[in-house]
Amino acid sequence: MSKCPKSFVASALIAALAAGPLWAEKLGLGRPALPEEVAAWDLDVSPDGTGLPEGSGDVWTGDELFADYCAVCHGDFAEGVGNWPKLAGGKGTLDHEDPLKTVGSYWPYLSTTWDYVNRSMPFGNAQSLTADEVYAIVAYILYSNDLVDEDFVLSKETFMEVEMPNADGFIVDDRLTAEAHFVRDPCMENCKDNVEITMRARVLDVTPETE
Amino acid sequence: MTFGFKDKKTPSRRQFLTGAAAAGAGAMAAGAAKANGPDPLITEVQYWAQGFGDGVDATPYGLPIEYEADVIRRNVEWLTADTISSINFTPIHALDGTITPQGCAFERHHSGAIELRKEDYRLMINGLVDTPLVFTYADLERFPRENHVYFCECAANTGMEWAGAQLNGAQFTHGMIHNMEYTGVPLRTILEEAGLDAAGDLSDKWVYVEGADASSNGRSIPMEKALDDVLVAFKANGEALRKEHGYPVRLVVPGWEGNMWVKWLRRVEVMDGPVESREETSKYTDTLANGISRKWTWEMDAKSVVTSPSPQSPITHGAGPLVISGLAWSGRGAITRVDVSKDGGKTWETARLAKPGEKMALTRFYLDTEWDGEEMLLQSRAMDETGYVQPTKAELREVRGLNSIYHNNCIQTWWVKASGEAENVEVS
């Protein structure tokens, strides 16, 4: 690692944000990360597929793996067991009173499914699946959501072919414009003619006992 | 003063909290002292005034006295499938000031609170940097450090209340929050140690941050924020982070939703774009009435709540002087003012801030008042330095509908009854 003094004015942004740096050079702390170390920890997959490893898996292999590793919580058909997350279904419910948000109905990118299953599932035994197993399980989740045919093989090459139904279902936070009317002079007197209680938590009675 | 609610059922004894019993005892004790002459607590020598207390070797690291045993974190079983990926709640109804004691500060984990020794801790910086680096915990303590007080509020705080008044207590409706004094190293310092020349134009770059736990909790943060005030923290309220709060190192992301405050921080990657991880697509996106969802709703808007009186903190002293106390905060800057209403928002009085509001930190407010013993519909309304005024739930629903889950910063109403009991209600 170079310990030469480096200028911090590489860009206007840095210059603007690095107001009054405390020191003019790097401290020389830490050590270079080795390629094997970066490979072990840098597993994230981006929406364009960057980060995907080589490998592949088909729907039926995924079905078997899902039965072994996933179905106890997520159901044989990814429909969910009890309070555990449903991974399939809910198509067209996002504007309903009680939307069902699943990989098929809600998730905008397939990369997220691959990345999350690979890194954090099965719950309680994360990072135990091979790349091929993750491809197969994701293929099965897609099949459970009617997004691919039963003969589909998911791989690094076929990844971008899959269309996620809710890919266009997201907007970037627009509160500053959509809720600009909350910047205002607040009313202090005679703000309402009448006040009625319209709902009570006690009637619902779902608060845990505090004794 | 009366209100129009028709179905006014008798309070259930089961839900009449400890405070009610204390009220009775307190009233009796006070009455007894008056009726029966001198108070024996004064006229008789008490054991604590005669014998010994504990030696200084009794408690190397102390816990609160047993009489404060109700000031604890609580969870709500039905909210989640299990307790591993779950939430508990800070007892804000019983606290005062602004600093949250770490031992009862809320927890939110996605795969449990892991145990990670400082010796086993590694932090990797990689991606678009000049030299990918690995730091040990000891390395981090050698960087110039800063101290800041910030609130950490879960994006889902008050989320159960979108559809109506559900949980009966400020702890449950507003307790996914804590406020601590953090010591740590600016993330900027650590990124600059790895070198950002390789990243080129930084204005469109991102960092991806993830934890050492199985869930990883990976989140994408725009470079502008990463270089501004994000802190790689290793101390909170003067001591090491608690295990459940990310020991030995967590990210502090001032003003932004708690999910981004990655615990057990193990990796920061400089990237060309956001990863769009599970925690910023499936979760922490806010669905509007038309089915379209907002993403990257990072800031926590101005919010407040009256912590006392409240359902778990009823009035036990009868009519007369009353301290109405609460918390206000904003992710977009300092709180400049809090108004309090006793009549459900018809009229408002400006409360007193215990100290001037600090940016992205809890602010304590008080309204010192005289209670006439009649019912009140108590509300508080925060304003921040951007001029933003905390909205009502109806106003939020007008924009967002009922299914946003996250970012519910609506005005809370407590119905304080003549008995001094309080209940979570919605009003017209």
From TrEMBL, chain A:
Species whose genome carries this gene: Sedimentitalea arenosa
Keywords tagged on the record: Heme, Iron, Metal-binding, Signal
Listed InterPro entries: Cyt_c-like_dom (IPR009056), Cyt_c-like_dom_sf (IPR036909), Cytochrome_c-type_DH (IPR051459)
Organism placement in taxonomy: Bacteria, Pseudomonadati, Pseudomonadota, Alphaproteobacteria, Rhodobacterales
Name of the featured protein: Cytochrome c
Lineage top rank: taxon: Bacteria
Gene3D superfamilies: Cytochrome c-like domain
Cytochrome c domain location: 57-145
PANTHER family: ALCOHOL DEHYDROGENASE CYTOCHROME C SUBUNIT, BLL4482 PROTEIN-RELATED
A molecular function GO annotation: metal ion binding
Record's signal peptide: 1-24
Automatic annotation (TrEMBL), chain B:
Alphabetical list of Pfam families matching this protein: Mo-co_dimer, Oxidored_molyb
InterPro entries: Ig_E-set (IPR014756), MoCF_OxRdtse_dimer (IPR005066), Mopterin_OxRdtase_euk (IPR008335), OxRdtase_Mopterin-bd_dom (IPR000572), OxRdtase_Mopterin-bd_sf (IPR036374), Sulfite_DH_SoxC (IPR030835), TAT_signal (IPR006311), TAT_signal_bac_arc (IPR019546)
EC number annotated for this UniProt entry: 1.8.2.1
Alphabetized UniProt keyword annotations: Metal-binding, Molybdenum, Oxidoreductase
Oxidoreductase molybdopterin-binding domain location: 116-276
Family matches, as PROSITE patterns: TAT (PS51318)
Domain of life: Bacteria
Cofactor requirements of the protein: Mo-molybdopterin
GO biological process, one term: sulfur compound metabolic process
Boundaries of every Moybdenum cofactor oxidoreductase dimerisation domain copy: 294-413
Record carries keyword RNA-binding: no
GO terms, molecular function: heme binding; molybdenum ion binding; molybdopterin cofactor binding; sulfite dehydrogenase activity; sulfite oxidase activity
PANTHER family (UniProt xref): SULFITE OXIDASE, MITOCHONDRIAL (PTHR19372:SF7), SULFITE REDUCTASE (PTHR19372)
NCBIfam families, per the entry: sulfite_DH_soxC, TAT_signal_seq
Protein name in UniProt: Sulfite dehydrogenase
Organism: Sedimentitalea arenosa
Annotated gene: soxC
